[in-house]
Design goal:
single chain; 0% helix; 121 residues; mainly beta; globular; four-stranded antiparallel β-sheet
């Protein structure tokens, strides 16, 4: 069983920045794929970014060039640096752990409870 706890969400104006953190209860160095996902009201949960044990990363087209995923294995923590935020980035953000390095929610089997990000125009 893997426990994940997100933090760092909040309310910002468009153009602002936030850094999300996700603390894991296991060694992140042993996890093949960790990802960030988001879900806006009335919409399906979508993949934002993922990082694998080798350090490779993938991003959704909507966040490329603005968001950066990283992890600190010494702290067992996953991060998402979000810059140039837009109102359409408003959503609940979740971190997740999986065995396949993709952005599909189907590939991830452990999830955190989420942290809310609200971007105002």
């Amino acid at each position: 069983q893997v426990q994940l706890v997100e933090s760092g969400g909040g309310s910002v104006q468009a153009g602002g920045s936030l850094r999300l953190s996700c603390a894991a209860s296991v060694y992140t160095s042993n996890i093949y794929s960790m990802g960030w996902f988001r879900q806006a009201p009335g919409k399906e949960r979508e993949g934002v970014a993922a990082i694998n044990s080798g350090g490779s990363v993938i991003y959704a087209d909507s966040v490329k060039g603005r968001f950066t995923i990283s992890k600190d294995n010494a702290k067992n923590t996953l991060y998402l640096q979000m810059n140039s935020l837009k109102p359409e980035d408003t959503a609940m953000y979740y971190c997740a752990v999986g065995n396949i390095f993709v952005l599909g929610t189907w590939a991830y089997n452990f999830w955190g409870q989420g942290t809310q990000v609200t971007v105002s125009s």
